[in-house]
Amino acid sequence: MADLILFNANVLTMDPLHPKAFGVAIKDEKILSVTANDGLKRWKKMKTITIDCKGQTVLPGFIDAHCHLHAVAESHVTLNLEPHHNVRSISDIQSKIRDASQKLPSGAWIRGRGYNEFYLAEKRHPNRWDLDQVAPAHPIKLTHRTGHAHVLNSLALKIVGISNETPDPPDGLIDRDLKTGDPTGLLFRMGDFLSRKIPPLEDEQLDKGIRIANDELLSMGITSVQDASSHNGIEEWKMLRRWKEKGFLKPRVVMMLGTESFSAYRERDFKTELDKTQLRLGGVKIIIDETTGHLIPSQTELNEMVLKIHRSGFQACLHAVEENTVEAACSAIEYALKKLPKSDHRHRIEHCSVCPPSLAKKLASVGIMVVTQPSFIYYSGDRYLQTLLAEELKHLYPISTLLKTGVKVAASSDFPISPASPLMGIYSATSRMTETRKSVLSKEKMTPKEALKMYGETAARATFDEGIKGSISPGKLADLIVLNGDPTKVPMNEIRDIKVEMTILNGEVVWEKF
Ligand SMILES: [Zn+2]
């Protein structure tokens, strides 16, 4: 007997052996049968719940292979300064801060995130004086869209102890006024320092934020996420476990560890009573950075870090954006495989933003997976077109080339860096169009079906979960979504207008459009 039956549906199973069906029967959180309408009768008993899909499209739940849940929770309880939230000038930022300051007692922190100087009329970062103008009695911290730069007002600088006598930290930079030497409030790569000095948000606030995020994710059809935060450790794990246990966060989560906590890793610290399909560890995140002009970590350090992860049986997930860093990531994985050969290791490169065909071939031959962010084309494409070198633009997010070369590519949003909507990502991957309708490397367009697979089977594969997720097949987890349009049939421009009507997770309807 089935617990739940969906019928009269246009089921795109994403299972190459049986690509189409009309109905799905679900039992005990799993898919029981995928069949024609007639085939469902035998599973239907008195207590079975039935849903008439009226011809609508049913797909496997979307999987987001790279996002940042704690930052997402924070983003919902701090000021959202992203361009698509109508923040297009420094005075827009000022008016949001002014509004917030009127609701808070003096001395209370005001936090904002996601500002993007490229889309601000002034084409510059805000500074301490801009912020002092509107709320001098509240300490203010703004976080840049990348998370790698922050702006503090004068009171906040005083609280964290930064003055014109403060030297630059080893890996960071304190921006200064050229004439006076006074800090401008803009700080680069000092996030760790700030998080030690500025009180964190209260758990209650984060709980509120994750519950909003939960609704958002489910409304977009996301049933699984992979948390790729490089600071993840035991505290983040405990928070995720609490959110899952309390039912605040429904999508399944695989959490990567940061390198620091991986060094201190003890299996017993990361125990949970929850089902492993709901929450577990997977992968170790390393950031490879070359913004200072040289690689951090160095190639030798990186090789040893990856080897250690590889030997321990974990997946290495290497953040690499520029061609040089992608090359370094590839060499480090090759190095580890030479020391200890292993097939199907599934080490990953996160982003892999600039990758010429020769390097793509190398990734394929080493068996490296790529986790890409198609909707960056839409949300950041205009910035790329104006600021990147021609040499970089030629090989920017070459997703189709990667696929043709044999690299397995999973999709993600990097939420909250860009909005999480997979349908927007699928539109971006198939159209290669920016927000202002300019084309970015149109030869890298892919079919909607290829794009769907990146948010399904391949994203599942990125955590060794393709046996239980990513297609609507008997025995797999019952994570399904109902859409009001078929992404493989509607005109390309309409893909982003398709709406999720219903999200089913673990055999249960967890979200429904009113
Ligand atoms: Zn990220």
Task: Explain the overall architecture.
The mean pLDDT is 95. α1 packs across α6 (203-219) and α10 (323-339) runs parallel beside α11 (357-366). β10 (110-115), α3 (128-134) and β11 form a beta-alpha-beta unit. The chain is of the alpha/beta class and 514 residues long. The strands form four sheets. The chain has an eight-stranded parallel β-sheet with strand order 8-15-16-17-18-19-20-21. Strands 3-2-7-22-23-24 form a six-stranded mixed β-sheet, covered by helices on one side. The chain contains 17 helices and 24 strands. The structure holds zinc ion. Residues 66, 68, 228, 414 line the site of zinc ion (ZN).
Percent helix range: 25-40%
Q: How many DSSP E strands? A: 24
- Work out the helix count: 17
Strand content: 15-25%
Instruction: Enumerate the distinct ligands.
Output: zinc ion
- Computed CA radius of gyration, to the nearest angstrom: 23 Å
Mean pLDDT: 95
The CA-CA distance between the termini, in Å, is 29 Å
Within the largest sheet, what's the order of strands? 8-15-16-17-18-19-20-21
Topology (elements, then pairings):
Layout: E1 4-7, E2 10-12, E3 20-21, E4 23-27, E5 30-35, E6 49-52, E7 57-60, E8 62-67, H1 69-76, E9 79-80, H2 90-103, E10 110-115, H3 128-134, E11 140-144, E12 149-152, H4 154-160, E13 173-176, E14 183-188, H5 191-197, H6 203-219, E15 222-227, H7 234-245, E16 252-258, H8 259-263, E17 279-287, H9 299-312, E18 316-320, H10 323-339, E19 348-351, H11 357-366, E20 369-372, H12 375-387, H13 390-393, H14 399-405, E21 409-411, H15 422-431, H16 448-454, H17 457-461, E22 480-483, E23 500-505, E24 508-512
Parallel strand pairs: 1-6, 2-7, 8-15, 9-10, 10-11, 15-16, 16-17, 17-18, 18-19, 19-20, 20-21
Antiparallel strand pairs: 1-4, 2-3, 4-5, 7-22, 11-12, 12-14, 13-14, 22-23, 23-24
Helix pairs in contact: 1-6, 2-3, 9-10, 10-11, 12-15
